[in-house]
Specification:
Elements: H1 4-16, H2 19-28, H3 32-49, H4 56-63, E1 66-74, E2 79-82, H5 83-96, H6 104-107, E3 109-117, E4 120-127, E5 136-143, E6 146-153
Parallel strand pairs: 1-6
Antiparallel strand pairs: 1-2, 3-4, 4-5, 5-6
């Protein structure tokens, strides 16, 4: 079931999706079920790699789910990161113990709902620590059976 907020966001996001990624997802032949499973798998891997107890193996497992040219975008904050930059920053944060204070129950994402399109899945995610904050929406785009891009649509 899709909420009105997610539906409105999806209309906006659909106009912003790059045609090449969407077509690649169609050519890849990922089913809606498989794309949705990948969203859940990546979210679990993100939670494990960014909270207390995270290991280098957890980080490597997460980044193995991304294409070699993976891009993370956060349009609301004008951020665009390559896979290489994210991985380097992630491993440095791990070495410095940044995630040691991040309780998985508070900081881990949980998926509230998803809506799939051609080669992409919009995801409504939340974290316990956010309480009544507005929902966090992300769009996962796929190619070659992996996540090629994640766009986050929130700014707080």
């Amino acid at each position: 079931m899709t909420t009105p907020l997610l539906s409105a966001c999806l209309l906006i996001v659909s106009a912003l999706l790059p045609v090449g990624i969407v077509q690649a997802g169609q050519q890849d032949g990922l089913s809606v079920q498989r794309m949705t499973e990948l969203v859940h798998e990546v979210t679990l891997a993100q939670n494990k790699a960014t909270t207390r107890g995270a290991t280098l193996e957890d980080v490597e497992r997460l980044y193995a789910m991304y294409t070699a040219d993976f891009i993370y975008e956060h349009p609301g904050m004008d951020d665009v990161y390559t896979r290489e930059l994210l991985f380097r920053n992630h491993t440095r944060a791990l070495e410095r113990g940044v995630y040691d204070d991040y309780d998985p129950a508070e900081y881990g994402y949980r998926i509230v709902e998803t809506m799939a399109g051609d080669g992409a899945v919009a995801v409504h995610r939340s974290q316990a620590r956010l309480g009544d904050a507005p929902p966090r929406m992300a769009v996962f785009e796929f190619r070659d059976g992996k996540v090629a891009r994640i766009r986050e649509y929130w700014n707080y």
